[in-house]
């Protein structure tokens, strides 16, 4: 029986999609197509007024809600079975203030869209572009990314996405629009900086500070066969353990090349935020490892690098994402042997292992209790990302992720990056938020006392 949406339709400026519309399946699908959750209605909001109308309609109708931006939540918490999805993906207005190096972004802007305005189309008096604190995935939206932390190639130099949030506009469970700043609702601003997607309200806009990035940087990708992978992992660890320098941001991934039919390779990719010659020196220890299959590092622009790396991200595969931060000393030879062995046995060519993030630098310079983001000194992280197409491939791929997670358990410290959410973790509150969780519960009580914005891993009310 179709839901009676007439009262919502009367004011709604965006698009309402229900299971009775031919566009429903396309509108429903998440990055992770293993998620088959079927909402009763997807409210694709055109502006903050639509968000208010959707919240009020859902409250009055007694419908559960989920909030969605780009749909990349690894465990699918941006959909809700039989409920109303408040989709902010079309909130794409951008107000750039070049003089103050800030931008106010609609929650649905992707980082490439923002960088086009602030970095590509604008040059500062000293010849730089201004970049937001984005990651490489072109379809992730800025709000979902920054509210949960937000690591990109600029993070070690300038801080996380959440550290760049100056303020927010947020619609509460009552349908009230709050202006969240350091003066108004400072406790909520604290929570949004790291736990913002976990049940406080719907963010419609975020204000960010921007960072100067040279027009030309050293960036790219280099790769080794798995025969050289353990040596390359060792060199990478030695490059970063105890490192003070904070402009070199290199991530690792083991993925097939060409993707998804080729051989698995260990790839190092990223950039140096500074003069190209200095970057060459900093990268030299990695370049000295084994016999690279290719080395495509060279002078490039920040945005060209991001475009090139994002091109291989495929929306709509089935996915299981596990992993976590390594304990001190856990990113070890023993772990490397386990990792490379697992990479050789991956059941799907779409699967990958990612070693990204790299705390410390400007990330570690922020006190652990200054925001709701706690994993600041953690250098190494593994993402075990099984991806496949057909339902009958699920069992082998799920077993592969679980086996690798179990084998690495002695090397991990129990913390998990909340933006790489794992629905199977019963200890999620501790793993994502550690000692800040009790404070988050108090703020949840203040701003959402009926737990309207609830999902399987949203902040619980105290008691
Ligand atoms: C391929 C891929 C690459 C990634 N790369 C990186 C990376 O380089 N660095 C990094 O840090 N992370 C990365 N991530 C993780 C990503 O940042 C998070 O999954 C992020 O939450 C996705 O945001 P979204 O809007 O696309 O997803 P959604 O699934 O739409 O939302 C994710 C969560 O945020 C909440 N949310 C979204 N919009 C709002 C809003 N307007 N108001 C309140 N809550 C909201 C949702 O309710 C949900 O809980 C990657 C993920 C994928 C799948």
TrEMBL record:
Pfam families xref list: BBE, FAD_binding_4
InterPro entries cross-referenced by the UniProt entry: BBE (IPR012951), FAD-bd_PCMH (IPR016166), FAD-bd_PCMH-like_sf (IPR036318), FAD-bd_PCMH_sub1 (IPR016167), FAD-bd_PCMH_sub2 (IPR016169), FAD-linked_Oxidoreductase (IPR050416), Oxid_FAD_bind_N (IPR006094), Oxy_OxRdtase_FAD_BS (IPR006093)
Keyword tags: FAD, Flavoprotein, Oxidoreductase
Highest taxon listed in the record's lineage: Bacteria
Residue span(s) of domain FAD-binding PCMH-type: 34-213
Xref: PROSITE patterns: FAD_PCMH (PS51387), OX2_COVAL_FAD (PS00862)
Keyword check for Coiled coil: no
Cofactor: FAD
Family recorded in the similarity comment: Belongs to the oxygen-dependent FAD-linked oxidoreductase family.
Protein's UniProt name: FAD-binding oxidoreductase
Organism: Luedemannella flava
Lineage, broadest ranks: Bacteria, Bacillati, Actinomycetota, Actinomycetes, Micromonosporales
């Amino acid at each position: 029986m179709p839901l009676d949406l007439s009262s919502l339709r009367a004011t709604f400026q965006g698009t309402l999609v229900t299971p009775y519309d031919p566009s429903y399946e396309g509108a429903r699908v998440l990055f992770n197509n293993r998620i088959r959750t079927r909402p009763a209605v997807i409210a694709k909001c055109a502006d903050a007024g639509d968000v208010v109308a959707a919240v009020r309609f859902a409250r009055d109708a007694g419908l559960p809600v989920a909030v969605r931006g780009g749909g990349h939540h690894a465990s699918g918490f941006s959909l809700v079975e039989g409920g109303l999805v408040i989709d902010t993906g079309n909130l794409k207005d951008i107000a750039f203030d070049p003089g103050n190096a800030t931008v106010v972004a609609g929650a649905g802007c992707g980082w490439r869209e923002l960088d086009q305005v602030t970095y590509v189309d604008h040059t500062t008096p000293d010849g730089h572009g201004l970049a937001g604190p984005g990651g490489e995935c072109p379809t992730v939206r800025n709000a979902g990314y920054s509210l949960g932390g937000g690591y990109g190639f600029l993070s070690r130099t300038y801080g996380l996405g959440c550290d760049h949030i100056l303020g927010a506009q947020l619609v509460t469970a009552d349908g009230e629009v709050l202006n969240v700043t350091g003066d108004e609702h400072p406790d909520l601003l604290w929570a949004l900086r790291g736990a913002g997607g976990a049940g406080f309200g719907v963010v419609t806009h975020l204000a960010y500070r921007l960072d100067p990035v040279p027009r030309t940087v050293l960036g790219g990708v280099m790769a080794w066969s798995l025969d050289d992978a353990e040596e390359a992992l060792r060199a990478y660890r030695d490059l970063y353990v105890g490192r003070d320098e904070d402009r070199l941001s290199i991530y690792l991934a083991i993925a097939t090349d060409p993707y998804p039919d080729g051989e698995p390779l260990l790839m190092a990719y990223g950039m140096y935020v500074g003069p190209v010659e200095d970057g060459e020196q900093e990268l030299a220890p990695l370049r000295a490892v084994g016999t690279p299959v290719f080395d495509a590092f060279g002078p490039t622009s920040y945005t060209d690098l991001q475009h090139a790396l994002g091109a291989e991200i495929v929306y709509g595969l089935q996915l299981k994402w596990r992993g976590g931060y390594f304990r001190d000393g856990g990113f070890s030879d023993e772990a490397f042997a386990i990792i490379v062995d697992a990479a050789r046995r991956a059941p799907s060519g779409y699967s990958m292992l990612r070693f990204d993030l790299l705390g410390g630098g400007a990330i570690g310079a922020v006190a652990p209790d200054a925001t709701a983001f706690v994993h600041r000194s953690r250098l190494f992280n593994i993402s075990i990302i099984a991806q496949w197409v057909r339902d009958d491939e699920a069992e082998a791929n799920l077993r592969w992720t679980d086996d690798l997670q179990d084998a690495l358990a002695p090397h991990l410290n129990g913390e998990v990056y909340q933006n790489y959410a794992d629905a199977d973790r019963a200890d999620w509150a501790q793993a994502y938020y550690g000692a800040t969780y009790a404070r988050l519960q108090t703020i949840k009580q203040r701003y959402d006392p009926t737990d309207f914005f609830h999902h399987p891993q949203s902040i619980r009310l105290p008691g």
